[in-house]
């Protein structure tokens, strides 16, 4: 009996790998200050949509991440409330982390810079009122 399944192309394999990397970064962003979750999860969804319907379906039906992805795919924008919540939580974690690294100004500066970049990324996403 021969296997009739089609092997994924290099492009599909690279998109799945990029999607998994983005998803991993997004999940790390849940606990790491300054690393935004939303843009990475949305990037993962975009990669999966182009390369793996099964992974895209899994992500859109995920209990916690699915609503964010479905909302993005329907509106291509984030509600203002979500932007404020994510920015507030991210900057709170950055401030707490910077406080933990008192005496290491270069590390504090790095954390603050990454937090500001994360906030900038979130606010560059179109706003839906």
Polypeptide structure, described:
There is one protein chain. By secondary structure, this protein is mainly alpha-helical. It has 6 helices and 2 strands. Strands 1-2 form a two-stranded parallel sheet. Helix 1 (10-28) runs antiparallel to helix 2 and helix 5 (80-100) packs antiparallel against helix 6. The termini are far apart. The mean pLDDT is 90.
Task: Report helical residue fraction.
Answer: over 70%
- N-to-C CA distance: 56 Å
Q: Report the uncertain regions.
A: none
What is the tally of helical segments? 6
- Please state how the strands of the largest beta sheet are arranged side by side: 1-2
**C-alpha Rg, in Å?**
18 Å
> What is the H-and-E element order?
HHHHEHHE
Q: What is the number of beta strands? A: 2
């Amino acid at each position: 009996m021969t296997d009739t399944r089609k092997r994924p192309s290099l492009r599909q394999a690279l998109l799945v790998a990029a999607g998994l990397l983005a998803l991993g970064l997004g999940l790390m962003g849940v606990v790491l200050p300054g690393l935004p979750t939303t843009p990475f999860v949305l990037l993962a969804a975009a990669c999966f949509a182009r390369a793996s319907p099964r992974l895209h379906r899994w992500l859109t039906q995920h209990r916690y991440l699915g609503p964010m992805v479905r909302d993005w795919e329907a509106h291509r924008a984030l509600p203002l409330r979500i932007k404020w919540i994510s920015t507030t939580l991210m900057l709170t974690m950055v401030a707490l982390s910077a406080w933990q690294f008192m005496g290491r100004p270069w590390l504090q500066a790095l954390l603050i810079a990454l937090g500001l970049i994360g906030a900038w990324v979130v606010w560059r996403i179109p706003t839906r009122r």
